[in-house]
């Protein structure tokens, strides 16, 4: 069973893993630097907390609902070197400390708001999600990339 990112214990465990990264930490696979990876992980949270009303077009929405959503919200781990959606690509240099602190703040905010806040909350690209689906998406993504960087 997927760990619960809404629990204080799991949140602190994830934050400890993030804190063990340095600006020099190298990936075990993939092309992103550690700073880019942190910025990439921040995109998930930025989208979750954004007030943006920009919705995907009809065809994109169908693909997201029936192809992408099951991969993202399930408990099945992401594959190494998987394809990244364009809105999640980070190719420019990022400030390590700034991205690290932003991610930690997002993780703490999510834990403090708790699972009930996310029950039925709409994802801009995936539609309404159950809190368990939000949990799986948040935790699985973080775990995937922290493992990528050996922590």
Descriptive report:
Helix content is 56%, strand content 3%. It has one domain. Helix 1 packs antiparallel against helix 4 and helix 2 packs parallel to helix 4. It is mainly alpha-helical. A hairpin with a 3-residue loop joins strand 1 and strand 2. Strands 1-2 form a two-stranded antiparallel sheet. The chain is built from 5 helices and 2 strands; from the N terminus they run H-H-H-H-E-E-H.
Q: What characteristics describe this protein?
A:
single chain, 151 residues, mainly alpha, 5 helices, 2 strands
Could you outline the blueprint of secondary structure elements for this entry?
Elements: H1 8-19, H2 34-49, H3 58-73, H4 96-118, E1 122-123, E2 127-128, H5 131-148
Antiparallel strand pairs: 1-2
Query: Segments where pLDDT lies below 50 for 5+ residues?
Result: none
Label the overall shape: globular
Give a short account of the largest sheet. 2 strands, antiparallel
For the largest beta sheet, what order do the strands appear in spatially? Answer: 1-2
Mean pLDDT: 93
- Tally of DSSP β-strands: 2
- How many domains make up the coordinates? 1
Helix content: 55-70%
Termini gap = 20 Å
Number of helices: 5
How would you summarize this macromolecular structure in one to three sentences?
This protein is 56% helix and 3% strand. The protein has five helices and two strands.
């Amino acid at each position: 069973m997927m760990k619960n990112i809404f629990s204080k214990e799991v949140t602190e465990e994830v934050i400890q893993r993030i804190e063990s990264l340095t600006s020099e930490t190298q990936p075990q696979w993939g092309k992103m630097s550690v700073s880019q990876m942190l910025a990439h992980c921040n995109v998930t949270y930025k989208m979750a907390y954004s007030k943006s009303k920009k919705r995907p077009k009809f065809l994109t929405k169908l693909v997201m609902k029936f192809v992408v959503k099951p991969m993202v919200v399930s408990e099945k781990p992401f594959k190494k070197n998987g394809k990244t959606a364009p809105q999640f690509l980070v190719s420019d240099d990022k400030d390590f400390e700034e991205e690290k602190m932003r991610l930690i703040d997002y993780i703490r905010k999510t834990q403090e708001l708790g699972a009930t806040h996310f029950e039925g909350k709409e994802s801009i690209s995936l539609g309404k999600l159950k809190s368990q689906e939000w949990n799986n998406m948040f935790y699985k993504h973080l775990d995937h990339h922290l493992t990528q960087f050996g922590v």
